[in-house]
Fold this protein.
Amino acid sequence: MKKYHAIIIAGLVSRAYNRYRGARGHAAYRLRTAAKERGYETRVLDFGWYLSQDLAMQVLEKYVSAETKVLGISATFWQPWHWQQLPAILTPEFFDRVRTRWPNLKLVLGGPGSGMVQTQHLFDYHVKGYSDRIWPDLLAHIHGKPTLGLSFE
């Protein structure tokens, strides 16, 4: 099975975007391409908002390996009026389960809506802006490799 350096859980909040039911955002796939250009494999788990906590853990069990250092959560389409509709996986309990199972996995929140998310304190890194430029450097940083000029705190 292919080994991934990072996994991104993405997708539209379809309950709020009913007219896009079944649609998929492209941002996570752009990050995957940018990472691949730098030698990092990223698995995108689309329609992540449909995952229960248990199902999300089962899916992660399939893809997380010793090489996987990052779990990214895309907040591209979140807005304040969606807070009552946030996905089941966006809870302290879920992230406690992830950290217990994979203690070396870094949690990253990203996307234009991520600054408004009430749970951003649960993450190791918070990325805003042009993430296709930041994502490969963040992966390099977390994997202990040189970055192309960005620094992380």
Notes: The mean pLDDT is 81.
